[in-house]
Amino acid sequence: MRLIAIAAAATIIAAPALAQDGETRSMAGVIPGYEPSAFEQDLGGMESRMAAFGAKVEALDEDQTLTEAERETRMAALWTEYGPDLMAFTASAAEMGLNTAGTMMQTMNLGAMIEAALSQADIAGAMASVDVQAALAEAFAEIAAAHGAATAEAPADAGHDHP
Q: Does the pLDDT at position 113 exceed 80?
C-alpha cells in the first residue's frame, strides 16, 4: 500500500506543476488560434481532485486509531474512487508527451543536424592517428588464424565425392 501512496504523491506533486493558474496554463494568449487540448483544459480540475486525494491519503497515514487492515481497506476505497481519474490523467499526459515529441521530430531537420555535426568533426585528424597498415595486418592475421582453425577442423576428404 505504501507504493500506491508514493505513486499518488508523485501525481499530486506533478499536477500543480502542469496546472499553473490563469493564462500561463494556456498558450491561447501566446499563439494566435491555439486551441488547448482536453488535457490542458482539465488540469485545474485534476489538480484539485488530486489535492483532495492527497489530503485523504495523508489523513489515513496519520490516523493512529486505525489498524493496518482498516487503513488498507480505506486506502483501497480511495483508489476505487480516485484511481480512474489518476489513470486517465496519466494516459492523457503520456499521449500529450508523445504528440509533442512527434511534432518536434517532424519539424526537425535531422540531415542538417548531422551535416553540422560532421562538419565540426576532425575526420582527417582522426584518420591520421590510425596506423592503417598495422590495423590491416592485424585484421588479416585474425582472418588467417580463423580460416586455419576452420580448415584444421574440417575432414580431410570434405567436398570430395567417393564412389
A: yes
Radius of gyration of the chain (CA): 32
The interaxial angle of helices 68-107 and 38-62, nearest 10 deg, is: 160
d(CA 1, CA 72): 7
- For residue 154, the surrounding DSSP H or E stretch is none
Q: Higher confidence at residue 160 or residue 119?
A: 119
Range 4-7 contact pairs with CB under 8 angstroms and sequence separation of 24 or more: 4/75, 4/79, 5/57, 5/61, 5/75, 7/86
Q: Rounding to the nearest 10 degrees, give the CA dihedral for residues 126, 129, 130, 133.
A: 140
36-55: pLDDT as tens digits: 777 777 777 888 888 888 89
Residue entry with cell 501512496? 5
Name which residue leads in pLDDT, 156 or 117.
117
Say if residue 8 is exposed, middle or buried (CB neighbours under 10 Å; 0-12, 13-18, 19+): buried
Q: Is the pLDDT of residue 2 over 80?
A: no
Which of 5, 1, 13, 85 is CA-nearest to residue 49?
85
Amino acid identity for residue 55 in this structure: A
